[in-house]
Amino acid sequence: MIKYNLLCKECELTFDSWFASSKEYDKLKNKKLINCHSCGSVRVEKNLMAPKVINKDISDKNGKKDLIKYQKIKKTLNEYQKFIKNNFDYVGKNFAYEARSIHYNNKKKYKGIYGTASKQDLKELKEEGIETQIVPWLENKKN
């Protein structure tokens, strides 16, 4: 895992985000899947970061704190995923189509839906008044 400090070029918000690796960051950046959580812009870049100077006396303590924090976040995300899988219908790549179908045909759904959609699909759904949420999704891999 690697943590980057990111800067939104639209609203100038700085924020931290974790990635599986620097290659994963590059892959997501190239696919325009990294966006500002404040304004939604995909014009997000790595910000200058100070190197972490390791003090042997406290490095183990901080490392353990970071690991505990990471494990807590991962556990919370896994709990969200489990809830979503148990309470929503998975529609895969048909998410935008299914969301429009529910919205425009006044379909009564006993369960919500989840799946994948492109940034463009999400933008169009928002313009049409169809609410969506982006949820970080973890693969079922053991790290």
Brief characterization of the structure:
By secondary structure, the protein is α+β, with helices and mostly antiparallel strands.
Rg is 18 Å
Structural class: alpha+beta
Beta content comes to 15-25%
Which regions contain 5 or more consecutive residues with pLDDT less than 50? none
Total DSSP E strands = 5
Order of helices and strands: EEHEHEHEH
Q: How many DSSP H or I helices? A: 4
Average pLDDT figure: 84
Distance between the termini: 9 Å
Q: Name the assembly state.
A: single chain
Strand order of the largest sheet: 2-1-3
Helical amount: 40-55%
Number of domains: 2
Shape: globular
Q: How is the main sheet built?
A: 3 strands, antiparallel
What does this structure look like?
The protein is α+β, with helices and mostly antiparallel strands and 143 residues long. It folds into 2 domains: 1-49, Rubrerythrin, domain 2 (Single Sheet); 59-136, no CATH class. It is built from 4 helices and 5 strands, in the order E-E-H-E-H-E-H-E-H. The strands form 2 sheets. A 3-stranded antiparallel β-sheet has the order 2-1-3. A two-stranded parallel sheet has the order 4-5. Strand 1 and strand 2 (14-19) form a beta hairpin. The chain is globular, with a radius of gyration of 18 Å. The chain starts with a strand and ends in a 16-residue tail after the last helix.
Topology diagram in text:
Layout: E1 2-8, E2 14-19, H1 22-30, E3 44-46, H2 56-87, E4 88-92, H3 95-104, E5 112-115, H4 119-127
Feature tags:
single chain, 143 residues, alpha+beta, Rubrerythrin, domain 2, 2 domains, 3-stranded antiparallel beta sheet, two-stranded parallel sheet, globular
